[in-house]
Amino acid sequence: MSNLLDGKTIVVMGVANKRSIAWGCAKSLMDNGAKVIITYQNERLRRQLDKLVPEGTEMIECDVAEDANVEKTFQDIQAKFGNIDGVIHAIAYADKETLEGGVIDVKKDGYNLAQDVSAYSLISVSRYASRVMNPQGSIATLTYMGSTRAIPSYNMMGVAKAALEANVRYLASDLGPKKIRVNAISAGAIKTLAVTGIKNHGDLLKESEARTVDGEAVDIHQVGDVATFLMSNLSSGVTGDLIYADKGVHLLA
Ligand SMILES: NC(=O)c1ccc[n+]([C@@H]2O[C@H](COP(=O)([O-])OP(=O)(O)OC[C@H]3O[C@@H](n4cnc5c(N)ncnc54)[C@H](O)[C@@H]3O)[C@@H](O)[C@H]2O)c1
To answer: Which UniProt keywords apply (predicted)?
Structure first.
């Protein structure tokens, strides 16, 4: 608990349930004084969230598959709450068939869908969010080390994460003159809804946990605390970069 984020309004995108990394981020941001606005993908997920979030938490539907939805979401947020100070983008998707095979078998439609939701959406979110964001604002997305290595079973999602991380660098450069920073958190493997879509995810989770420096998997709250740092003015000199929150897994071959 701190008042590090007092006076800041942060939009958190991608809470599906209590296991979501976005939920770990929202919790940490709230605990450190931020006003948090949560966006959710669809009405079905909204029902889960009603049970999860503290009473009075603002929630808005936003399916990032359409630019128009993203534009409207940030316009509506500004109309209702004024300018924002940050965004957490914790969104990714690939269809089952695309995730099941190797990259060699990925079809054009599956490739485009994964890139669209998992990587392009950061561009549209940054574009429309930055129009209603105060200077010293901060945008952070979630990535995984499958972007730079051929991790078994991660397949197409690794390709999408590579694009996402390149987006972070270019967006940081584009938004620098507006004094808005863009970064990525590379989280260790955590059992969430998204991970269960990956074939052999049990092996991925087990292996990742075994490779942490203390043998215990990183959790959503530890990742959330890195998000708090990136949303705070303590990270004002950090942009276009990636911070690992994986308890050292990426260091061990
Ligand atoms: N769990 C892990 O091991 C891990 C590790 C590193 C990075 N990540 C990344 O963290 C982020 C959050 O994933 P998570 O693991 O918390 O899983 P999750 O399933 O809880 O969250 C994924 C979110 O993406 C949202 N989403 C998917 N398509 C969308 C759309 N069209 N519009 C709006 N929202 C959409 C879902 O509704 C869900 O809330 C993802 O980018 C994921 O790749 C996860």
So the answer is: Fatty acid biosynthesis, Fatty acid metabolism, Lipid biosynthesis, Lipid metabolism, NAD, Oxidoreductase
249 token code pair: 């897994």
Is residue 195 within 6 Å of ligand 1 at its C-beta? yes
Instruction: Domain count for the chain, please give it.
Output: 1
* Parent domain of 177: 9-246
Domain with residue 190: its CATH number is 3.40.50.720
Contact 90 CB / ligand 1 (< 6 Å)? yes
In a domain, 206, yes or no: yes
Task: Find the 94 Cα to ligand 1 centroid distance in Å.
Answer: 10
Q: Cβ–Cβ contacts within 10 Å for residue 166, how many?
A: 12
Residue type, 78: Q
Is 154 one of the catalytic residues? yes
The string of pLDDT tens digits covering residues 83-107 is 999 999 999 999 999 999 999 999 9
Q: What percent of the chain clears pLDDT 70, i.e. is strictly above it?
A: 100
Strands (DSSP E) found in 149-199: 181-187
Whether 73 is covered by a domain: the verdict is yes
Confidence grade of residue 199 (pLDDT, cut at 50, 70, 90): confident
Residues 6+ apart with CB under 8 A from 51: none
Q: Is position 253 within any domain?
A: no
Residue 253: what pLDDT? 60
Domain presence at residue 3: no
Residue indicated by tokens 């690992």: 244
Which among 52, 69, 142 is the best mutation to test ligand 1's pocket, defined by most ligand atoms within 8 Å of the CB? Answer: 142
